Amino acid sequence: MIEVGQTYDFFGKVNLIDDSTYESYPVNVTTENNETVIVRVKQSKKVELNKIYFFNTKAIEFKDKIHLEASNFTPIEDTDIEDENREKLMKFFYEYAPINIVDIKKDIEVAIGQIKNKVIKDISDKIYQRFQKDFYLYPAASKFHHAYISGLAYHTHSMLRLSEGFMAVYPFLNRDLMVSGIILHDICKIFEFTSYENSEYTIKGKLIGHISMGVNLIHEVAKDLGYEESEEVMLLEHILISHHYYGNFGSPKKPNIAEALMIHFIDNIDSKACVLGEELDLVNKGELTKSMPVLDRERYYKHHLTNE
């Protein structure tokens, strides 16, 4: 029960924002306890639809109803909470990657820490440290694959796991280039979408795209570190430029080094296998999936030997 005059602090997701001629406007919020409350926000301050905030409020009476007047509110990504608690809230409010973010973060940071080439390690670590908060929040796509909160980190981690088999079979592959190329290949998707919770493309995302932005980012960081003329930088840039393989998919060059070709294959495998797995989960054994654009609009049969 909410009592007038009492203070209430909670995480909540904004569902609806109404206009008002009063000093504050009403916001429909679902709380972390799955309750619906009306939070009043001062006209001089703005909240965004579908976003999670930590609200500091006080219960007031407004037109014979109890509302919660917000004294402060902070986006969840700017709050100082443990990764486990943030992940729990994200999974409650949004469609979220089927992962444990703590374990994935540990694996990715171990992979970066094991890079031996100084140029590649310094560039990879500086970019990762600068953007890691968004890296673990953003989706990998708007609709076709890993299109949910933390999809980018999930996709990257899956590619790293797949790459271990490739490197075990093909010893000519350079581990440092493989690891760095995988971690950096999609990192500029954090600039391609309007926000992590509502993955619409930005103008910059539509006109420039994450491939070109990623190459520019590597060049910028390499220049800051004094590495811009090194071969390692050229190789990393080539991996990013070519990882979509085809020009109509955004790559101006096809892969011309072994690591770029393998990363293209691994990227393609994971993006398609992830979608296939999700669609198979939606049907019963003995049924066909719906047609899938990423798989040439084919329908796949879920046979009775399929692992659940």
TrEMBL record:
The keyword Signal does not apply. It holds the Pfam family HD. Keywords: Hydrolase. GO terms for molecular function: hydrolase activity. InterPro entries: HD/PDEase_dom, HD_domain, YhaM_exoribonuc/phosphodiest. One of its GO terms (biological process) is rRNA 3'-end processing. Residues 154-270 form the HD domain. PANTHER family: 3'-5' EXORIBONUCLEASE YHAM. This is HD domain-containing protein.
